[in-house]
Write a structure and sequence with these properties.
Helix content: 40-55%
Order of helices and strands: HEEHHHHEHEHEEHH
Strand order of the largest sheet: 1-2
Number of strands: 6
Radius of gyration: 22 Å
Length: 200
Amino acid sequence: DVYVTCDQCHGKRFRKDVLEVCYKDKNIHEVLEMTVSEAIVFFSTRNKHSMTSEMNSSLSRATSHIQKGLKYLSDTGLGYLRLGQPATTLSGGEAQRLKLATYMAKGRHEKILFIFDEPTTGLHFDDIRKLLDCFQKLINNGHSVIVIEHNLEILKCADHIIDLGPEGGKGGGYVLGSGTPEKISKLNKSYTGKYLKEYL
């Protein structure tokens, strides 16, 4: 992809008159440059400018709504993303977690089968724990979660594993075993089992 900086806005994506509008001394461009984690802090503190009680009440509702959405992003391990980051720059795992956060924010109640393909790609250990917590919330709400994954932290927490192998590509595709992480860790021909045994 080729990106060219606009010679009118210089990459800020807004007209000058829009950028003159500020909230807590930050314009929209500066807010969109914040990470999700930075934005959570920014929107959690009170505005120091004096306002009428009606304006203050409206602002409080708006910031509460914003914080709720940001919390779901943080809970799925996306606290490091910039708010204005183009979707085209997200990895596959990030895009999946963004969809998960969007679903959770909507608060829908119908039962769903979620399928994730290596959602831990690029995640720090602490963020993997957050992602596991999100998976558990989905399960507790009656949803089903299938994860295609190599990450041992995810595998050791699975209710049921189906191990394919023994190799990748042409050397794989066979079901080596299925069951609990403990059962998979006892399989002789399983690379997953070998490493999982050391991890349990």
